[in-house]
Specification:
Length: about 425
């Protein structure tokens, strides 16, 4: 895992937050490549939900909501709390289920009795910091969806079954954030809530589990690194009647990347009860009025990005080139799916000291830049530059050479096969769009 963390920092994917002040509380910043990859993951997910499925619409609800939302949802009670243990001497706190002994893992002293710790992040709205102005940063984005169930239903004339999807920040005061970006306090969720008739809930649960598992496989995650885990009743989230975690085999073990939940009528009934607003659905055809059941799919952007990075990371001893003698060097290849690789195209002049080649490469870069996320690179030997691009998963490397000056074309090198073909510069945008 250290190698991936190091690559992320070295090549501009992920940096520790507030680093010049020694970092802050397991927070991370996404660098130029990280933000491109994050945006790609969000786009692929959004398109999947809103374009390739029927009857799903999007939403962008506020992070700050009435604290009554969290009272009704059960997040302010024991339902959304971890059990923590605290050291009597150094006062470090740990998640109880991660501590194997009765001694503090940091200083070896005795631990206090376990107690519940609520994960909601508190904040105050307005100038006075008192109970009346207390609210919370949302811990899951879906509550904003439930708040707008009726608005969307009426304004968009939706009919059950239908879905509402949302991407946005969520916050949890995790006791022990850890494993790089796996468990952090501020993260983004991509959540879809599918509202259906209670009798269809199980059918849709299976449907969505299948869709979501396939989504990872389509984006290149290896089958052997993905599995599902049916969460037993006593370990389920407080709202879940049924819960299956989609798990990825991280370097530190199998861990959840996405949850598929049958939330039953927990949310809409509780919000009806607490708000006094009847959120039942009226089916005009059958004349039936009922509280819809909800099937939820919920994944963290960072967690899925981390899984994609781990899965794509390869080290090739002696290098990839078979035409020359193997060197002792280890080459890194980030075999990301083309939809989520942050840089799609790199433009490279064969050599830096031939102004005509540099000029040609810069012209090509300007042509491609509005269409694809591109990099221009002229530093070092061409072999070294190919390796630099392989390391960040760039799909195509385009090289201008002396032939280019005569034929107005260049070589296009495929990251995975390393095969090169010549393409006319005037056809580049069209050809690359087809390939990508
Ligand atoms: N609305 C349901 C819900 O929030 P969850 O299982 O608590 O369910 C869903 O979270 C997903 O959100 C997780 O599978 C994970 O991908 C992401 N997630 C949750 N807590 C996280 C954290 N502390 N850091 C990073 N991602 C997190």
């Amino acid at each position: 895992m250290e190698k991936i963390v190091s690559l992320c920092k070295r090549r501009g994917f992920i940096y520790p937050s507030s680093e010049i002040y020694g970092g802050f509380s397991s927070s991370y910043d996404f660098g130029p490549l990280g933000v491109e990859m994050k945006n790609d993951i969000k786009k692929v997910w959004w398109d999947e939900m809103t374009k390739f499925h029927e009857n799903i619409v999007g939403l962008d609800a506020a992070i700050l909501m009435s604290p009554k939302v969290w009272q009704a949802s059960g997040h302010l009670t024991a339902g959304f709390a971890d059990t923590l243990v605290e050291c009597k001497l150094c006062h470090k706190r740990f998640k109880a289920d991660e501590i194997k002994t009765k001694k503090c893992p940091e200083c070896g002293d005795e631990l206090m009795e376990p107690r519940k710790f609520n994960l909601m992040m508190k904040t105050f709205v307005g100038p006075v910091e008192d109970e009346a102005s207390l609210t919370y940063l949302r811990a899951e984005t879906c509550q904003g969806i439930y708040m707008n169930f009726e608005n969307v239903l009426n304004s968009m004339r939706m009919k059950i079954p239908f879905g509402i999807c949302q991407i946005g920040k969520a916050f949890r005061n995790e006791i022990t954030p850890k494993d790089f970006i796996y468990r952090i306090r501020e993260f983004e969720q991509m959540e879809m809530q599918w509202f259906c008739h209670p009798k269809d809930a199980e059918k849709y649960f299976n449907f969505w589990l299948n869709e979501r598992t396939n989504w990872y496989l389509k984006l290149g995650i290896k089958k052997e690194n993905l599995r599902i885990f049916e969460v037993p009743e006593k370990e389920r989230a407080h709202y879940a009647k049924r819960q299956i975690d989609i798990e990825y085999k991280f370097p530190f073990g199998w861990r959840e990347i996405e949850g598929v939940h049958n939330r039953g009528d927990w949310d809409l009934s509780n919000h009806s009860k607490h708000s006094g607003k009847d959120l039942r659905y009226f089916d005009k055809e059958t004349k039936e009025r009922y509280s819809p059941h909800i099937i939820e799919t919920s994944v963290g952007v960072e967690r899925s990005l981390f899984a994609f990075l781990c899965d794509a990371y390869q080290e090739i001893k002696g290098g990839r080139t078979k035409t020359t003698k193997p060197t002792k060097e280890v080459e890194i290849l980030l075999k990301l799916n083309k939809k989520i690789a942050p840089i799609k195209v790199a433009v490279l002049p064969l050599v830096k000291n031939k102004p005509e080649l540099v000029k040609k490469a810069k012209e090509v870069y300007q042509i491609l830049k509005p269409h694809f996320v591109c990099q221009y690179d002229e530093l070092g030997s061409i072999g070294r530059r190919y390796r630099r691009q392989d390391e960040i998963g760039t799909i195509f490397c385009l090289t201008t050479d002396f032939e280019s000056l005569k034929q107005d074309d260049l070589t296009v090198r495929d990251r995975d096969t390393m095969a090169q073909e010549r393409i006319k510069i005037q056809d580049l945008v069209k050809v690359l769009k087809e390939k990508l």
